[in-house]
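SAMPLE LOG
Freezer: B-3
Tube label: C17
Construct: single chain, 136 aa
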Amino acid sequence: MEEHGSDGWRYRGTITPRTLPGLRRHLMSWLRRRAGDEVSRQAEDVVLASWEAMANVLDHAYEGRPGQIDVRARIDDQVLIITIADEGSWQALEEKGGRGRGLRLIQALVDGLDLRSTDDGTVMTLTWPFPVRRSA
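STRUCTURE (predicted):
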C-alpha cells in the first residue's frame, strides 16, 4: 500500500523484482513534488541509494523471494530521512563475483547511514541535508 501525505511518502507491502522500478519512480516523484527540480541531482542520489537498499532487502533478507518491506520518506528540520525496514533474516554480506558492493555504494551516496538488525528484521535509515522548497 502506498501512502502520500503532507509529512511524507510511504510504501508498505510486498517487495519483488517487479515492484522495485515502481518504488523508484514513486519516490522520485514525491521528492520532486516536495523539493522541486532545483535538487534533482541530489534526488537522483537519494533514489539510487534507496533503490540499492531495497534491492539489498530483496537479495539478503528474502534471498530473491517476495517479502514484506516498509519504506518511509520524510523531511524533518531540513533533513531527508528514508527508512527501509524488512521482516527477513539477512544472509551474510559476502563479496562474490562483483557482488557485495551495494552497502559501499549506499555509504558513498548518503550523509548518514544506520543499519540495525534484530530477530524481527532489519531497519536501514538513510539521511541527507535537504532544503525545503519555500512558497512565494
